[in-house]
Design a protein that fits this description.
By secondary structure, this protein is mainly β. The protein contains 1 helix and 5 strands.
Amino acid sequence: MSSEYEGLLYKKGVAINNLRPVGTIRINNQDYSAVSNGQWIIKDTPVKVVQVDGTKVLVEKIISEQTHA
């Protein structure tokens, strides 16, 4: 695994197009191809890298822990 991809683990970024389930994410002004775990993630949704396998980047959408009253 390249050190660039290894360093992505647990980083946060944003989906720059719809992941259905494959798409592109941006982390620190760098674009990466990513896949969600079968989820449809809409463009501009915050995501977090949960697994890296070679150059395969698995992401999940970040669920806000704040509640709105």
